[in-house]
Write a structure and sequence with these properties.
The complex is a heterotrimer of chains A (315), B (338) and C (281). Chain A is an alpha/beta fold and 315 residues long. In chain A, 33% of the residues lie in helices and 9% in strands. Chain A has 2 domains: 150 residues, no CATH class; 126 residues, no CATH class. In chain A, β3, α3 and β4 form a beta-alpha-beta unit. In chain C, 21% of the residues lie in helices and 30% in strands. In chain C, α3 links the parallel β7 and β8. The chains are: A alpha/beta (315), B alpha+beta (338), C alpha/beta (281).
Chain lengths: 315, 338, 281
């Protein structure tokens, strides 16, 4: 997305030695919870068939807990599997979920929206130095060059408020906030230039809806973009419908999105969707002092009315 | 007929084709990714990477208008789209997994009813395939009966040579014709050795065996197991060279608009949803089963071909890491056991 | 401009000649093709379907509900439940709609010559059989006994009410109409009960008989065992399936039940064929 910025700092490896002990801790905790019967399933990660890859795993027996891992390829936000959209897993009972700091923000958000109760889930947090960005080769270790952009600005490497935290981190490298820089660059453009930036990106959209389907907050039983009576958003992958879809997506997630950037990672057309998410988050912070965090909030600012709300935008 | 062509001449060939008024679609670097796109000059040609999307859109565009309509007091007038307006096209640098796909799709687009939108583009396109000399860990063409040097579907076929440039083999008359017409860019084959073809990791799968398991296992706990992670997006289908499902939508107003045919995916929940609300494939495992069944059984039942060329795009881009090659291996192993 | 036959997605234009409200939400259109050549050449068989356009909203799939023995016009019957059917419902007499078809297979009527026929239908599922009923009645001498068992929730939900009356009055048709218990008014002169039980009570002989069943899945589910009990084999029973379709031509990939494409291999199937399919419809 931002090729020129990739080379700002020399490529150096990032210390992920704690991921081995995190893996051990997750396995032990998962096995314990499943043996005790205090949870019916543990949602975590396991190795993919290709060396160095990882994928979500739903483990239901203590023996299988040994398959769980934590590695720089554990990119998914597993909170997705606790939502209405994927409700089958939770039908079985209380579940445990492996969560990075960024994922916990999504869990907190879901709790704030009454989609999930704290007591329904055991949060197995992981101390995370970062995961790999899309485009990184499957086998390579985590470096300052291939780390996901969201991780460069992570403020929750070692999360709090979980039931346990696996692994402990040593020193972390200072990384340039590429996403914030890109956002600032866009902010400095004229509206016409920004419009053309997004128009160009959205023109590539194929409407595979991966951005929607991986989002923990896109749990609506029926997305308004799938409705056709009346049809709010054209379904064909053409400029009008694409633009409408991405604006609707950004608006519906503002004040809710925790910037896990799964939409951007899942996008096969490299549309920098998290820039939009970040921009919306920035606006909400400025307007309402709202920020996605680790604690469940009652309601997002756009779902709530207060007399002292800023109304200066009404002209 | 076999010749060679230098890298420079390949670019000049593109320029010559463009000058004649034809369209050349080839891998081109489009910001962060390579895509098959119409070239403006030969300099844009970039054969280093497998394009992110397959080349099926050369024949079966992501979205196309199939008719227009306009209503006034006199009634409705329907405007047609003339396939004669589709340009003569050379699809250059199609990898074997992409080049082979249209020959598989011909069967469905000509099944009793000829979809001229697809077929006319097919007739007007010459495919210049390109052997793969590198593969990544998601490639599995060899597992489904193709190979990095497979010429199936190509009219001309390029194989990179050790010292640069390409050996060029005419596979069909159409290819031979192009080579003869553009003879000035080709030289006689010398002693230059071709680069060794890539070696994708995938061990050949016994597709017959896999199909026989699918024949008898529409109901099997495996479907829930392999699809419980699937989030129901269309990334796999949209990047796939062989997925051909589409939707038809009217856009515009009732007074004036057009009808469009555009890619769709069987992984979407609303794909099979009836207007009444009844949905025969109500849950994701049923949809994922349809994807596997369609590729490795149904299409074979109907047309005797497997609807997969092993390009690996669905594996690389599945947001939750579902690996179709791993699933096929799992199925094959089940046959061994049962 | 290419000639019409080249674009398989391009519909014929037809004028709505008559609108009949069958029930509060089910409507019949009588359609006449605008192009004279199409009017003369359009032919179809009972059981086939078409794609009907409400331009600007899209296409919807329904059977051709009229009989091929009645040339010059076709009829379709639909319930307004979705975007397209609601748009169709907004159209008036004289308006233009698009019609693509006929598509799919059909009832092998020639194989029914000399046989008894038992039609079993529920609710809005009479139209796919009604095309065949009139087809048979228009060449009545070719068939033996004709029995029609038709039911709906209430009297008001019965479609083709005027034709039911006509069939009832004919001596060469045995019409058994029924409404669900509770759906009968004081004027009701038919049976009261669900279609499968009424069929069981009517007990048509299975010998040299073909049963043609069309209705909601739940009705079919309970009707098949009754027919079996009456001695019908799977090959003596025909039904039609419907699935969401877009192209109707075997290309768009959504109407398949297993490897069977409802649009090309169907919509008419024997009970044996349906049982052999994966139960995903």
């Amino acid at each position: 997305m931002n090729n020129m910025a990739q080379k700002i700092e020399a490529t150096t490896p990032i210390d992920t030695s704690s991921y081995a002990s995190a893996t051990e801790a997750i396995r032990a905790e998962a096995a314990r919870l499943l043996t005790e019967g205090s949870v019916t399933a543990v949602i975590g990660y396991r190795s993919g068939k290709r060396a160095g890859t990882a994928m979500p795993a739903i483990v239901t027996s203590p023996e299988k807990a040994a398959e769980l891992i934590f590695s720089p390829s554990c990119v998914n936000n597993l909170a997705l599997y606790l939502t209405k959209a994927k409700k089958d897993i939770r039908k079985t009972g209380k579940v445990a979920i492996v969560a990075k700091g960024c994922d916990i923000k999504a869990l907190a958000g879901l709790m704030g929206e009454s989609q999930l109760k704290r007591e329904e889930v055991v949060i197995l947090a992981v101390a995370c130095a970062g995961v790999k960005g899309s485009g990184a080769a499957t086998g390579e270790p985590l470096t300052t060059a291939n780390i996901a952009r969201k991780c460069r600005e992570c403020t929750v490497h070692t999360p709090q408020g979980a039931d346990s935290v696996a692994g402990s981190l040593s020193t972390l490298p200072e990384l340039a906030p590429l996403e914030a820089e890109e956002l600032a660059r866009l902010e400095a453009l004229t509206p016409a230039e920004r419009w053309s930036f997004w128009k160009k990106h959205f023109s590539r959209c194929v409407r595979c809806l991966a951005c929607r389907q991986v989002c923990p907050f896109c749990y609506c039983e029926q997305c308004m973009c799938d409705r056709n009576r009346p049809q709010a958003v054209e379904t064909t992958p053409r400029p009008a419908g694409n633009m409408a879809w991405h604006i609707v997506r950004a608006m519906h997630l503002s004040g809710r999105c925790a910037s896990c950037a799964e939409c951007e990672r899942a996008c096969p057309m490299d549309i920098p969707l998290n820039l939009l998410n970040r921009k919306m988050a920035q606006e909400l912070k400025e307007l309402y002092g709202h920020e996605a965090g680790l604690k469940p909030k009652e309601k997002g600012p756009l779902a709530e009315y207060r007399e002292d709300d800023d109304q200066s935008f009404i002209k | 007929m076999s010749k060679t062509i230098t890298e420079q001449n390949l670019r000049l060939l593109v320029d010559a084709l463009l000058k004649e008024g034809g369209r050349v679609v080839a891998p081109k670097l489009a910001e962060t990714m390579t895509l098959y796109e119409p070239l403006a000059t030969g300099q844009e040609l970039d054969l280093t990477k497998l394009p992110r999307r397959s080349s099926k859109e050369t024949f079966f565009p992501l979205c196309e208008t199939i008719l227009t309509f306009e209503r006034d007091e006199a009634g409705v007038r329907v405007g047609d789209v003339d396939p004669a307006s589709f340009p003569e096209t050379v699809l250059l640098g199609a990898r074997p997994c992409d080049a082979a796909a249209p020959s598989i799709l011909d069967a469905v687009f000509s099944w009793d009813y000829n979809d001229e939108f697809y077929l006319e583009r097919r007739r007007k396109t010459t495919i210049i395939g390109l052997a793969c000399t590198t593969a990544d860990d998601a490639c599995f063409c060899t597992a489904v009966g193709l190979s990095p040097a497979d010429t199936r579907g190509s009219d001309l076929f390029l194989t990179p040579l050790e010292g640069g440039g390409y050996a060029c083999q005419a596979v069909t008359d159409k290819g031979k014709e192009l080579m003869e017409k553009q003879a000035q860019f080709f030289s006689d084959a010398g002693s230059e050795k071709p680069l060794a073809p890539a070696e994708p990791a995938g061990e050949p799968l016994d597709l017959g065996k896999i199909k026989s398991w699918l024949d008898g296992n529409f109901e099997n706990p495996l479907w829930t197991k392999i699809a419980d992670l699937c989030v129901g997006c269309g990334a796999c289908a949209f990047l796939c060279p062989a997925c051909h499902c589409f939707d038809i939508s009217d856009e515009g107003t009732e007074a004036k608009g057009c009808r469009r045919k555009h890619w769709d995916a069987c992984g979407f929940g609303k794909f099979t949803n009836h207007a009444s609300g009844h949905n025969p494939r109500d849950v994701q495992p049923q949809r994922y089963r349809n994807r596997i069944m369609h590729k490795f059984k149904y299409y074979d039942d109907k047309f005797g071909r497997t609807l997969c060329t092993g390009c690996g795009r669905c594996i690389r881009w599945c947001p939750v890491g579902i690996d179709i090659a791993a699933i096929l291996q799992q199925v094959e192993a089940k046959v061994e056991v049962e | 401009m290419c000639d019409h036959s080249k674009n398989i997605y391009k519909p014929h234009l037809a004028t709505i000649e008559q609108i009949i409200d069958e029930t509060h939400d089910i409507r019949t259109f009588r359609l006449v093709f605008q192009d004279e050549a199409v009017r003369e050449s359009f032919s179809f068989r009972s059981g086939q379907f078409a794609e009907y356009s409400a331009f600007g909203a899209g296409e919807a799939t329904f059977c051709i509900a009229s009989s091929p023995t009645r040339q010059g016009q076709i009829e379709c019957c639909f319930r307004a439940v979705g975007r397209v059917t609601e748009a169709l419902r907004r159209l008036e007499v004289g308006d233009t709609i698009g019609v693509r078809g006929p598509y799919g297979n059909s009832f092998p009527i020639e194989q029914f010559y000399g046989k008894n026929l038992v039609f079993v239908a529920g609710g809005i599922a009479l139209p796919p059989l009604r095309t065949l009923i009139w087809n048979c009645l228009d060449q009545r001498e070719k068939f033996n006994d004709i029995t029609i068992v038709y039911g709906a929730r209430t009297e008001a939900d019965l479609v083709y009410k005027h034709e039911l009356k006509e069939w009832q009055e004919r001596s060469d048709v045995n019409l058994v109409k029924t409404v669900d218990p509770g759906g009968d008014g004081p004027e009701w002169d038919g049976k009261v009960g669900f279609v499968p039980s009424i069929l069981e009570a009517a007990a048509p002989a299975s010998d040299n008989t073909i049963a043609l069943v069309c209705g909601p899945p739940i009705m079919i589910k309970f009707t098949l065992p009754v027919l079996e009990k009456l001695g019908f084999t799977d090959e003596q029973i025909y039904t039609t399936l419907e699935n969401r379709m877009k192209c109707g031509l075997g290309k768009c990939g959504r109407c398949n039940v297993g490897n069977v494409y409802v649009c090309k291999d169907g919509p008419v199937f024997t009970a044996g064929q349906v049982k052999a399919m994966p139960q995903e419809f």
